[in-house]
Design a protein that fits this description.
Radius of gyration: 16 Å
Shape: elongated
Largest sheet: none
Distance between the termini: 12 Å
Strand content: under 5%
Number of domains: 1
Structural class: mainly alpha
Low-confidence stretches: none
Number of helices: 4
Oligomer: single chain
Mean pLDDT: 83
Number of strands: 0
C-alpha cells in the first residue's frame, strides 16, 4: 500500500510541475517554463540512482512485495 501511495504522490508532483511549466509557456513566459527543467532532471536522476541501488543490493523491494501475496 505504501508503494502505491508514494507512486501516486510522485506522479502528482510531476504533473503539477509539468502543468506549471506548460501554463507559463502558453502565457509566453519561456524563461519561467524552462526553469522547471532542472527540477525534472534532478528528480529523474534521483529516481534512476535509487532504482540502481535497489537492484545492486539484491532487490529488497521485490522481497517485500512477495510477502503481500
Amino acid at each position: 500500500m505504501m508503494r502505491r501511495t508514494s507512486a501516486a504522490v510522485q506522479i502528482l508532483i510531476i504533473l503539477i510541475v509539468i502543468g506549471y511549466g506548460t501554463y507559463h509557456l502558453f502565457l509566453g513566459n519561456f524563461e519561467v517554463s524552462m526553469s522547471t527543467l532542472p527540477f525534472l532532471v534532478a528528480y529523474y536522476l534521483f529516481v534512476v540512482v535509487r532504482q540502481r541501488k535497489n537492484k545492486e543490493s539484491g532487490g529488497e523491494d521485490s522481497s517485500e512485495s512477495d510477502e503481500g501475496r
